[in-house]
Every structure is written in structure tokens, then in C-alpha cells.
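Notes taken during the Thursday session

The instructor put the following on the board and asked us to keep it in front of us for the whole hour. The protein is Isopropylmalate/homocitrate/citramalate synthase. We were told not to look anything up and to reason only from what is written here. First, the residues (308 in total):
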Amino acid sequence: MTTEGQHAARRVELIEVSPRDGIQNEKVVLSTDDKLELLRRIHAAGLRRTEATSFVSPKRVPQMADAEAVMAGARAEPGHAALIGLVLNQAGFDRARAARCDEINVVVVASETFSRKNQGAGIADMVAAASAILAQSREAGIPASVTIAAAFGCPFEGEVPAAKVLGLVESLLPARPDEIAFADTIGCGVPTQVRELLAGAKALDAGMRLRCHFHNTRSTALANVLAAVEAGVHALDSSIGGFGGCPFAPAATGNVATEDVVYLLERMGIDTGVDLQMLIDTAGWLGDRLGHPPMSGLARAGRFPAAA
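Then, after some discussion, the predicted C-alpha cells were revealed:
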């Protein structure tokens, strides 16, 4: 089979993160109603898994202070997409479970310094906490994934060796996560790293679902998306409009834009099941709410060929 044929035979799942990672670092705090409208638009565009909010301290991340209200409003929508709640610790998990999240995503950071700055605990403690949360999620029948943050580099320590990241994967496997994601939290990663991490994870557990989360801080995100797809990744995180950034990672602005990813994949013959024009329109709508334009190529240049 040709490379094009291999691509055409695949479908890559997209997880929309604009309601969480996309807006968490924005100065304009969106109303709960605007967040629910964003979730409605995401679902209407055909995206079926959405990181809807995070259950973190409202003092540290004010944008997420209405997590329970967002989850309640979104769950009231008929046929809503699978709603993922991000958690960092036991308290966050307890809130997410009470809010009836469809899925849980727990974070472990691959850098000791970043882990202590971001989560107030070291890596070993976070692996233990994540493992306990995964066990509770499984007992409650809630699918749970683990995101390994700073998997491609750290703003404080610099390079993060692939062997260290894969050691974290190995330490998490006994807790049986449903999915493991590698996050380029500060947008420093390159395709060789993507291929090395995905190949290493597959060698540890060939059946594990793998996911990647890329930021475009240094304009490598789409190259990394392509490398991940060619390496057989199951799912990709992306954010409408390219909005996003981590409050605790200096200059880590800009998730890879969902509309740019969809354009790339579909031009390559890879099905996403997503309405590209609705994504472009929603990027403009969200930019209006946040007070600055979207950062995606498609939002600037439009689709090609142009829509009829």
C-alpha cells in the first residue's frame, strides 16, 4: 500500500482543548454562557471529545473557577460530546467525579522543577497520586488518561531525555491508563523527538492508546503533528484558533490550531469527521470574545480550495 493509501485508510481522532488549555491563560475571563456556547459550536462541528474544563484552584487559574457550572450546563445539552475534566490531584479528581465528567485527564510532569512549580509536588509523588486517581476512576467506571507534560523540554531544566519520559510511561502502566499523552508544553519539540517517544511507548505496551499535545511556540507544531500521524498516533489535542498557553510555563503560547490540523489531515486524505468551515467561523467568534484575533493559518488565509 502506498503512503497515501495508508493515510487514507486511517482516521485520526481530535480532542478539542480550547475550552480548557485554549482560554486558561487569557486575560479576558469568559462568562459561563460563552464557554457553553463554545462547547456547543465544538460539538456542532463534529468534534466528539472535548477537554471542557479543569478542576484546579480558582486562585491560580481564575478562568476555570466555574468548572462545575460549565460541566453541568454542558451535560444538559442533548447528545453532548464526551466531556473531559483535567485534574492535578485528589481534590481535583473528587470535584471532577462529583461533576460527572465523562472522562478524566490527570497530569504528571516530566521535569522535577516544573512539577514542583506547577503542581507543588515532585515527580514521584505525582506518579503515586496519578496511579491512585486512575484506580479510583477505573472503580467508578470513568475512562482516564494521563498527560505527561514537558515531555519534550522544560523551561527551567532545558532538555528532558526521552529515556526519562519513557521511564514515566513504564511507571504508570501498572495503573492501566486508558490513554497516555505526550505534551509539548512549551512548544520546543521536533519530529525526531515525537517519533522516538511514540516508538518507545509502543515498545513498552503495543496496545496502549497514544495521544500528543503540541504547542506552536516555535512554529514546529504542524511538523510534529505530521510526525505523530506517520508514527501511528491514535489521537491529537488541538485548540480552535490556536489559542492557548500554560500559566506556569513562560512564553508557552499557542496550541496547534484545530482548523490547521484538520486542513492538513484532510488534504492528505485522512478523515477527521470535522466541519472545517465551522471551525474557522468559531475561531473568529472566540477571537472576538477574547479581544484578539485567532493565530491559525486558516483563520487568516481561509480554506483552499475556497468554499463554494
